[in-house]
Amino acid sequence: MKPFTLLYFILSVALYAVALPLLIYLSFKQKYKESLPSRFFLFNNPRFNNRDGIWFHVCSLGEARAIKPILKLLDDCDIKITTITHTGQVEARKYNAEVRYLPYEMFLPFWAKRQRVLVVLEAEFWFMLFTVLKAKGARIVLLNARISEKSTKKYLQMAWFYKKLLSHVEIVYAQSEVDKNRFIALGAKNIEVIGNIKLAGEIVKTKEYKKPNCEVIVAGSTHDGEEEMVLKSFVEYIKQGEAKLIIVPRHPERFDSVYELMKVYADRCDLSLERFSKSKELKADMILVDEMGELNNIYAISDIAILGGAFKEDVGGHNPLEPAHFGCKIITGKHFFHQKELFKYVHHVQYVEPQEIHRALLTCRSLPPSMLEQEINLEPVIKKILED
Fold it and tell me: Fewest beta carbons less than 10 Å away: which of 189, 288, 299, 351?
């Protein structure tokens, strides 16, 4: 190992030792009971079986979905995928690929096998991953690469570090010209702007549900605190007309707590409430979707989509392409910094503060459905991945 790499490795071991009690404690939490033991203790997380394949590293659900059109074009190749989150892992297992959790950095020198190419999505910048794979002879490609406006200052303060990390990268496929300039400032070379690969994804519904005979509002991919904002607005909104509210939380471990919150509002306002898992007839005034993989099916029968993840500062928004594809009128918050590039391609979106959701619902009556434009060409990416 080079001196800096050795120092980084030693620091990663020291940090692991300090964090070990917390890691053990969190491993018993429902949210982390699979991912943390796999990543930090290599539990049920063996090395890949073969060498010389194409290794995609993604973080979570959105990135795992985003590589689907690329994997279709690489159908005959030996594909490996690593993820960080459990939801990403579940999605990745749907592909014809070897799927693992990405181990903590100190394990990578011993765990990682040489692959022909490593394709890393978005902002998954792991120093040991890049260094080890490059040392083993892999070509490294950054795909859908981005640096958010919110994170730029932090990256620039550590520009010397990211210059070292990015020196291992063969090519950076950036989402936008703005991202390209930010990568240049960090010392990256060979950068091409191709747009956001999520635009290439096929958006489909997997089931057909009958649309209720009234206006349907879906609050999709919501996070803690956002459901209450939506519920307050909804109970005001239905004073002026009939409508149903369907809530689809982003994380399944929150299903029960969200249901209890909805029950408080249902009892207070004399509204009917049901769990989607119990009845899929969508007859109640309010419905909690407590099953994974249903959001597109719900978008397909909805008139208005309140897109979560952007009403507070800590998430950065969620993908607007799906509700736009199904013709929903989109309302979202103003903190969509991780999805800024995607929102450029979606028209007729209302960006509001939490206390403005009720007014936005009323405004929807005079707005056309949100619409999507723009396509992306994946051919240069596939050609680069398949280079010898």
Answer: 189
